[in-house]
# Entry
Amino acid sequence: MTGSTPTWDEKHLRLGVKAAGIALWSWHVDTDQLTMDEIGYDLWTVPKGTPVSFEDLSAHIHPADRDRVRVAFHATRGIVGPYEIDFRILVEDDVRWISARGRGDDEGIKARVMYGVFLDVTGRKHAEEANELLAGEMSHRVKNLMAVAGALTSMTSRSAETKEDMARDLTHRLAALGRAHDLIRPVPGQDKDGALLGDLLSLLLVPYDDLGAFSGRIRVSVPRMRIGEGAATALALVIHELATNSVKYGALSAVEGLLDVSSTIKDEEAVIVWTERGGPPVKPPADTSGFGGRLLDRVVNRQLRGTIEYQWQPEGLIATVRVTSERLSA
# Structure
């Protein structure tokens, strides 16, 4: 934007606006032409100095937001007071969140030109999404823990001969469940050197086994491999979710149910196979878009950068997790 030589106050204002990453724009309400400062051109990745209209910029808006923003933008003149519109734009393979702010009802209009700002609010939107996901995850986990506690109580009652035995065994199981749960949300100051894959899996699964992780109906067979703190936390969440589903619906919900967890490493890829047998007849779920399924996909795909596949065989579920050895040690 051009104009008269700014005073020192205006210079300071411009420096503050630039430091804050605020993009200034003006819109001619008759010609639909937009003028932006350098920050605005950089934000929209448009060649500097190129004449642009709202329709030109709309080509950069995420298709899911485009119609909403187009309608909202042209409706701003009828809005009394300040307005704010948040939307996504596409910058090559990245998605940015932009907030357009100004004042409606032609307030402050001069020579048929209205003014406003663009802000890059990508960081705030990601934080909001993370908070929403965390809230949903915690609600989901609390419900699962209640279901697991009930299943462990039923499991313990089948093998205990006296109420004292049942109280002792159930206390041990719940304590083991608590230790396994700590792996999903590690506390500050804990060991940062990672853990052995076999030890991690055994600790996570011991609450569900009648005789111990290696000698009962749960068998863990994995190569000796150390995994990093980040991967251990993510993998703990995956195993905890699979075990919860198994104790609610799968092999671990039945007295005769068996679980085999094995792993191989080949060509710099670790393959972890979760195999259930002896539980209720298995049918593929009609809806896999529940929070638990989405949580597993998010953790495996985004945090571990791997894949998870399901085989819904009548005799039991087989889940296969593939992660690079490098990622598992991170």
